[in-house]
């Protein structure tokens, strides 16, 4: 028997050992529930979650995620004739509301709500707009790009010839002159900017205009920035030349983890929606769709304030970190116009070490490649990515960011014992258990 395993073998062995303690499937199920509860207690209530791709959902969104409608099957497009199954009239109501709410939130003509994640959203775009063998230009990972647009993800799966968008490694900005030169030479069918490390708006107008020269299309993969875009706190790619905006609903958009597709041109509708159904989904989790619809309504009502405070908190956190001796990127441009702060932590042992040390103090972040790192530094990069979505939704503002920076500096700069910092993190975090900017709790008290 082969012993090849992609997962951590000790983690699987632990699970097996737990199962070997009993022959009772009921107890096995109980162990699953207990692990879920442990996570809710620790990550849900006791941690400062500063992971950039993560957002807490509102009580209503959570409730809908376990609702009865999630057990129903509704393949296909909305409407009596379009569905394969009868009995879907209320599901049609929910889905139609979701589509219209997404269109309102993103100020666009078309939206699709059915994909489980942005990986699939990007795959839908590649399926709809390219043929195997076509050339595309996308952002590479050391620049902040994402695997979904690279050889190892959906773009590669489509069999595309992928050319890197040139960038300046010092400033992490697109090198527009080089882009124009290389673009004219290879004439990519589509150009996809998808940034997982994202501090400032991208030159969408300039790049789209250059693509026009050879009839290329510009796609904005806004997985991370979707909430900021809906809340009008970033750029508005669909009004700046992008023909499609893709987004993950579980990042700044603060909804259930989902993929969203937004566009304006009716000529794209058939190809894009054909890629959704029947290519990528059949049943598409209508509970998730209902939750997404409510998250979109929350964005329309609260997005501007919520996302505005997220950006203020990023700037404040970056400044407070720098004042305490932790170097932060983007100082000359005000550190950040997004939900992210990128710190250079090589003097404290690098991103991997630092992220794990901070987690011992209940502060959750992730390692990240930064300028100066090589692609092969992937496992042990020099940077740390920090996000302000969750702490903002808990009602925190600028002064609280100084408190968080102080916790981090005690671990990293002063070398304090992580257990003693963890104690103070708990005292700070435990009283804060309500999520704001939603219809359950409205705005935080200080903002009303
Ligand atoms: C997170 C991310 C994705 C993938 O999103 P999922 O919703 O997790 O599938 C795609 N593109 C970029 C740029 C991302 O950061």
Topology:
Blueprint: H1 9-20, H2 25-46, E1 48-49, H3 59-65, H4 89-106, E2 110-115, H5 118-129, E3 135-138, H6 154-157, E4 161-164, E5 167-168, E6 173-174, H7 176-186, E7 190-194, H8 204-212, E8 217-221, H9 226-230, E9 244-248, E10 259-263, H10 269-280, H11 286-323, E11 327-328, E12 340-344, H12 351-360, E13 363-364, E14 366-368, E15 383-387, H13 389-393, H14 398-412, H15 418-429
Parallel strand pairs: 1-13, 3-4, 3-7, 7-8, 8-9
Antiparallel strand pairs: 2-10, 5-6, 9-10, 11-12, 12-15, 14-15
Helix pairs in contact: 3-11, 4-11, 5-10, 7-8, 11-14, 14-15
The structure holds pyridoxal-5'-phosphate (PLP).
Helix fraction bin? 40-55%
Major sheet description? 7 strands, mixed
Number of domains: 2
Apparent shape: globular
- The SSE string, one letter per element, is HHEHHEHEHEEEHEHEHEEHHEEHEEEHHH
Share of β-strand residues: 5-15%
CATH class of the largest domain: Alpha Beta
Tell me, rounded to a whole number, the average pLDDT: 96
Radius of gyration: 22 Å
Secondary-structure-based class equals alpha/beta
CATH superfamily of the largest domain: Type I PLP-dependent aspartate aminotransferase-like (Major domain)
User: What are the low-pLDDT stretches, counting only 5+ consecutive residues below 50?
Assistant: none
């Amino acid at each position: 028997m082969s012993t090849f395993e992609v997962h951590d073998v000790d983690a699987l062995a632990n699970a097996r050992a737990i199962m070997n303690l009993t022959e009772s499937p009921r107890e096995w199920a109980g162990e699953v529930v207990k692990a879920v509860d442990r996570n809710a207690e620790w990550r849900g209530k006791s941690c400062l979650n500063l992971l950039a791709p993560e957002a807490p959902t509102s009580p209503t969104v959570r409730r809908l995620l376990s609702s009865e409608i999630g057990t129903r099957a509704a393949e296909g497009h909305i409407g009596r004739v379009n569905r394969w199954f009868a009995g879907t009239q209320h599901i049609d109501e929910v889905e139609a509301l979701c589509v219209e709410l997404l269109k309102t939130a993103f100020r666009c003509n078309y939206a699709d709500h059915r994909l489980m994640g942005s990986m699939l959203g990007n795959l839908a775009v590649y399926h709809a707009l390219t043929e195997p063998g076509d050339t595309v230009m996308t952002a590479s990972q050391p620049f902040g790009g994402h695997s979904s647009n690279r050889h190892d993800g959906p773009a590669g799966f489509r069999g595309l010839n992928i050319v890197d968008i040139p960038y300046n490694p010092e400033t992490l900005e697109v090198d527009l002159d080089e882009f124009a030169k290389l673009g004219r030479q290879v004439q990519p069918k589509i150009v996809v900017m998808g940034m997982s490390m994202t501090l400032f708006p991208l030159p969408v107008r300039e790049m789209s205009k250059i693509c026009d020269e050879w009839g290329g299309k510009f796609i904005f993969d806004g997985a991370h920035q979707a909430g900021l875009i809906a809340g009008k706190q970033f750029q508005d790619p669909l009004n700046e030349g992008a023909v499609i905006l893709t987004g993950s609903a579980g990042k700044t958009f603060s909804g259930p983890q989902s993929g969203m597709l937004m566009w304006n041109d009716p000529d794209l509708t058939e190809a894009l929606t054909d890629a959704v159904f029947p290519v990528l989904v059949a049943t598409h989790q209508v509970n998730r769709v209902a939750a997404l619809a409510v998250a979109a309504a929350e964005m329309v009502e609260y997005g501007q304030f919520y996302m505005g405070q997220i950006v203020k908190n990023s700037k404040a956190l970056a400044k407070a970190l720098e004042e305490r001796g932790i170097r932060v990127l983007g100082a000359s441009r005000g550190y950040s116009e997004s939900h992210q702060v990128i710190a250079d932590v090589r003097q404290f042992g690098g991103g991997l070490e630092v992220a794990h040390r901070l987690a011992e103090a209940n502060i959750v972040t992730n390692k990240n490649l930064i300028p100066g790192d090589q692609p092969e530094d992937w496992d042990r990069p020099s940077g740390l990515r920090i996000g302000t979505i969750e702490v903002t939704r808990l009602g925190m503002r600028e002064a609280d960011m100084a408190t968080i920076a102080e916790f981090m500096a005690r671990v990293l700069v002063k070398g304090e014992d992580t257990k003693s910092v963890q104690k103070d993190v708990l005292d700070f975090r435990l009283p804060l258990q309500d999520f704001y900017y939603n219809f359950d709790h409205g705005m935080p008290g200080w903002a009303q």
